[in-house]
Structure formats: C-alpha cells, structure tokens
Recover the amino acids of this structure.
C-alpha cells in the first residue's frame, strides 16, 4: 500500500496527459490529484505518526500547488525552447516531485530516504529552470551542484552508519533502518558515530537550506514558478528537516547526541542571523520569502538543538506551521506577480487597494512574520520556552535577535508593498483564477487553524509524535 | 599499489591540467580504475551488478561522449579555465595527498581499508568543482565526488551492494542527465560556459 501511495501522484500526472481536450484534462488533473492526496489516509495505523504527519503535509500542499498551477497557467503558457519548459512536462515533473517527497517521508530506512531526497533534485532542477531565462538556468545550476554535493555527503554518512550497524550485528535488511538501530542501542565507537551522523546532518541541512550550505536556496526558490517555490519552501525544506529529525534519533541512540545537538544549535543560530540580516536588504518579494525560509529552517534546527520535550514539540509544530504559511506566501506572491507582472518590491506599492492578491499577501506576510493568530506565533513562543528550559541563553538570545531582524524586514516590505498609491504605471485588475485564489486561501486558512492544535486533543497526539524524535538528552 | 598510484596520478591530472580532453582522459582512467576495484563486490548480487554496469555506462560512456561533443562543437569549452595558477594547483594536489593520508589516521577510520584513497577521490572531486571555472568541469567534479562516495561504500559497508549501487547509479543519472541538459540550455546565454557568468543572482 505504501508503494501505491508513493507512486500515486506520478501516476495521476501520467493519466492526465492521456486527455487532449483542455477542460477535460484540467478536471481530470484536479480529480486524480485529489485522490492521490487522500491516499495517505489509508496508511493510518501502518506507519508511525511522524511519517503520517509529514505525508499529510506533503499531500495537502502538493495538491494545493497542483490546483494553483492548474488555475494560474493559461493555454499559451510553457512553450519554451527546451523540452522541460513545456506545460505537460511541468505537471509530470510536479507529480514526480510529489512522489519523491512522499518516498522521503514514508521510507523506513536511510537508503530509501536518501533515494527520495536525490529524486527530488531530479524533478525540481528542471522546475527551477522552467522559464528558460538565464537567471532561472543559473539558479537551477547552483541548485544542482550544491545539492548534489550535499546529498553526496549525506550518502557518505549513511555508508558509515551502515558500517556501524554491521559492526554491531544489525541484520543486513535492517542495517539502515532507524527503528532497528535506535531500538538495539548499538554500542558504536562514538567518534565514528559522531562523524557518520554529522555528515548526514550536513548533507540533509544542505537540502534544508541551513547556513552555511544555503547559497542555492534564495536563487532557486525565487526563480522557480510560484507554486513550485511554495512546494520547495513549504514542503521540500520540511522533508529535509524530517530527515534531520530521523538522523537525530539515530545520533542519540549511538551516543553521538551531544555533538549532533551542538551542530544543530550552530546551524540554527547562523541561519537565523544570516537570513535575518540579508532579509533587510532584499529588493525582490520572492527572494525575501526565500531568505525567510532559511530563517525558519534555522528556527527548527535551533528548537531541535535545545532538545527536551518542549524543543521537540516546538520544532515539529514550527515545521507544520511554516509549511502552510510559506506555501500561502508564495501562492500569494504568484497572484501578485500575475496581477502586476513583477515581484520587485519598489514597483508594488498600494497593493492593498488594488486587488485581492495584495490582501492575500498581507495575510501571508503576517503569517510568516509570526503574528497572531497565525501558527508561527505559537511555535516561536514555544521556541523561546524551549530555550529557557534548556538554559541555552546565548543561542536563544542570538536566535531571538535574528527573528527580530527578520520581523523588521518583513514589516518594512509589507509597508512598502501594501501602503501608498503605488507606481503610476501599475497594472491592476488582471483576472485571477478562482482555483488559484482558492488554493492560496486554503493554505492561509490552514496556517490559522494549525495554531489551535496545542489546545485541542490533536495537541497530545502531536506531543507523542514529537517525543519520538528522540533528541532529548 | 598500482591502484593507488593510478588514482593519485589521474586525480592530480584532473586538477593540474586545463585542457578538457586531457581532463576527460584522467576522469575516465580514475572512474575506470575505481570501477575495476568495485566490480568484485557488486558481482555477488545480480541487481547490484546491473546497477553497477548502468552506473559505469553513464560515467564512462555517456558523460565523456557528451562533454567531448560540447568541446568539439564549441571551441570555448576546450579549456576548463582553472581559477588558480599551475604552481598553486600543484600545491593543492600535494595538500590533498597529505590530507588524505592524514584521514587514514583518524580514530575510527584507521581500520577501514583504502580510506585514504576514498578521501583523496572525494577531495579531488571537490577541488575540481572549486578550481576549474567551466560548467563541464563541474559535471566532472560531481561525478568524481560520487565515485569517491561509491568507493567509500564498497570499503566501509560491502554488505550493502544494492543500496550503494542504487545510490551511485541515481547520482550519476542526476548529474549526467540534468547537468548536460542544463549545460546545453545555458549555451545560448553563456557560450563560454563560464562559471563566473553565473553570478547575476547575488545578495
């Protein structure tokens, strides 16, 4: 059943290509994608809570991105010179991307997880360069090179982990399974275990965009089409953080938890500070959002580094909250781009008065800025509480300073974009697709609803899942 | 000894030589040598062996043919345009040689056979990525890095041939297929295939 859930999105995309009439193809795409998005529900009880939660995030946001793309892009869209710049290939790659991310979160061992992460590169490198413009190709190239180096380093760590497992008598078929390694409390030599898990962390952190391995992220996330940016920032980064969570479980079991936590704290603080500072100088809306992703990935790393039940809960909650908030923000940026033909902040004044896109963008910017009633407000409070509980005053202080910088950058951009009359030659009132508006509204609504989780019955289930991450010392 | 020597010389040429054709020969020698070393481990499992053969086909036939075609059609692609002078590159090669020897003395790694060679190949791959300023060199660098990781798998965890070969093959597929397609698309905007011209996105 897991295999069917994983391949369903790709199959859905392939089925859609069989229809030639545009309206039939659009309707078929929406129906089969909805079915593919519902399939993970059949896994309740057969996979663990963490995998199920992430499979849910992947499916919901990937479905929303499919809906957004279906609505946003018209008939004459996607006719570039290269094969991958065609509309039908776009949806095939989107399906492949969705399937690859499901493989990452539903794998039960690091071999398959690594394969899923590598497969996301295969699908998304072309999506990043989809427009065929020089800057998009540049972003795709950097993405390919840096992420290939990252996943190569992760594979090296996995190989060393395999050596440790075999050395301690773990059976061949379970040698890379985190469940088997953690439950056996393998007594590995700590330096080798630390090296293996550190290499895995560096590799997966490259894909998550943590500083200093982040150089590809602002380029790729800002140059990809808006729904793909939403998936890259909201879901692919979450999948990479999921891989780091699984690695942390193994690191603790192998006695390398302390080194792993120190690395997480360092990556987390560096990411928040660097991203917060660079957000202040961004002139492009999508690039600003991309740097915000680096900041939020840093917050998750910091919360994991704090450890303890509160840190683990904060990390997991932040991943979920960020996934919905950031995808909503990129969808809103896509609407703005469609309405105004630009994402340059200086050319976007007075958006609040000029249409629905500007109002969605205001909500989305408030969401990623951590304003109430959005879920990131709650998760950032939880982060502070986790830092206090862990007595990590320096890391917490630097982290909060970086978050304040990011908030200031977002506030400044929001004022510039939403207030005033806007440029005199501004376009307004370009027709927006109802499907795309619906997808953006759904993502933004989820970002509010998730905020209530800690105060509901779902909160205890969430807490149980977070406890399984195993970063606690 | 012959294996180590071949790998060292081929790795050194990857960094020292600037001509695409020469670097391509060094790359083929390095990947072929490591493939010859890897093959006994893969032969025990048919699936792993099939993947191993595919991976070698991609690395030894498809990639060199693709790069040779680019170099043949585009005179600017015939030099990898190293970013540092020859004496400095020589120092880098010596540093990599000594550095990889030092890796084999690291606690926990010392018992792993040929770990020095593994470290040397991985470092050579990274050095090629950094030193040469031609996009084709970056494809070669990534494949050399992947070759080093595959060799690491063979010497560290020989019990996992299928997983390793799957990883190696997919890595080669991603780099070869996407890398060469992106290089082809980039040619219209960047005929020199110059890495330095990919710096419009900054800050």
């Amino acid at each position: 059943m897991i295999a069917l859930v994983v391949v369903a999105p790709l199959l859905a995309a392939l089925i859609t290509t069989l229809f030639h009439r545009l309206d039939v193809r659009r309707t078929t795409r929406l129906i089969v994608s909805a079915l593919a998005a519902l399939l993970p529900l059949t896994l309740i009880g057969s996979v663990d809570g963490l995998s199920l939660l992430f499979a849910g995030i992947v499916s919901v946001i990937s479905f929303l991105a499919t809906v957004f793309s279906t609505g946003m892009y018209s008939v004459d869209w996607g006719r570039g010179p290269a094969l991958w710049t065609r509309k039908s290939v776009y949806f095939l790659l989107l399906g492949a991307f969705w399937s690859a991310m499901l493989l990452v979160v539903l794998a039960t061992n690091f071999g398959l997880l690594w394969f899923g992460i590598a497969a996301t590169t295969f699908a998304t490198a072309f999506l990043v360069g989809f427009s065929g413009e020089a800057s998009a190709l540049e972003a795709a190239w950097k993405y390919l090179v840096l992420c290939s180096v990252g996943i190569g380093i992760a594979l090296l760590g996995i190989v060393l982990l395999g050596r440790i497992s075999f050395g301690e008598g773990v059976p061949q078929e379970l040698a890379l399974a985190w469940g088997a390694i953690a439950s056996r409390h393998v007594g590995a030599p700590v330096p080798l275990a630390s090296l293996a898990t550190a290499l895995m962390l560096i590799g997966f952190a490259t894909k998550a965009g943590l500083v200093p391995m982040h150089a590809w992220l602002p380029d790729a996330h800002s140059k990809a089409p808006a729904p793909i940016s939403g998936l890259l920032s909201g879901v692919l980064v979450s999948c990479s953080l999921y891989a780091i969570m699984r690695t942390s479980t193994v690191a603790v079991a192998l006695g390398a938890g302390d080194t792993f936590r120190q690395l997480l704290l360092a990556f987390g603080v560096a990411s928040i500070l660097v991203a917060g500072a660079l957000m202040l100088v961004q002139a492009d809306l999508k690039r600003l959002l991309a740097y915000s992703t680096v900041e939020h990935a840093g917050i998750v790393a910091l919360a994991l580094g704090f450890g303890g039940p509160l840190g683990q809960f904060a990390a997991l909650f932040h991943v979920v909250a960020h996934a919905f908030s950031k995808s909503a923000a990129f969808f809103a940026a896509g609407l703005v781009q469609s309405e105004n033909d630009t994402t340059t902040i200086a050319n976007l004044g007075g958006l609040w008065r000029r249409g629905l896109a500007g109002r969605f963008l205001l909500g989305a910017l408030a969401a990623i800025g951590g304003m109430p009633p959005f879920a990131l407000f709650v998760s950032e409070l939880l982060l502070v509480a986790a830092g206090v509980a862990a007595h990590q005053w320096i890391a917490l202080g630097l982290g909060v300073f970086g978050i304040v910088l990011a908030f200031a950058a977002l506030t400044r951009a929001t004022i510039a974009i939403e207030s005033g009359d806007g440029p005199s030659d501004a376009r307004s009132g370009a027709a927006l697709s109802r499907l795309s508006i619906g997808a953006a509204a759904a993502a933004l609504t989820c970002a509010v609803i998730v905020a209530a989780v800690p105060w509901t019955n779902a909160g205890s289930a969430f807490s149980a899942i977070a406890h399984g991450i195993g970063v606690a010392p | 000894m012959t294996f180590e020597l071949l790998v060292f010389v081929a790795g050194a040429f990857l960094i020292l030589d600037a001509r695409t054709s020469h670097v391509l020969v060094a790359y083929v020698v390095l990947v072929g040598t490591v493939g010859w070393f890897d093959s006994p481990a893969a032969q025990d499992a048919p699936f792993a062996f099939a993947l191993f053969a595919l991976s070698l086909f991609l690395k030894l036939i498809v990639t060199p043919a693709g790069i040779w075609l680019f170099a043949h059609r585009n005179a600017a692609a015939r030099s990898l345009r190293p970013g540092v002078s020859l004496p400095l590159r020589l120092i880098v090669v010596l540093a990599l040689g000594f550095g990889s020897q030092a890796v084999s003395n690291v606690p926990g790694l010392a018992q792993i056979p040929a770990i020095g060679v593994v470290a040397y190949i991985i470092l050579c791959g990274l050095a090629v990525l950094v030193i040469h300023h031609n996009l084709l060199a970056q494809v070669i660098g990534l494949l050399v890095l992947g070759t080093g990781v595959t060799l690491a798998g063979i010497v560290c965890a020989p019990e996992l041939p299928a997983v390793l070969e799957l990883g190696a093959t997919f890595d080669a597929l991603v780099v070869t297929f996407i890398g060469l397609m992106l290089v082809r698309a980039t040619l219209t905007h960047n005929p020199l295939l110059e890495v330095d011209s990919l710096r419009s996105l900054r800050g």
In short: Chain A has a mean pLDDT of 89. The two ends of chain A are 36 Å apart (CA to CA).
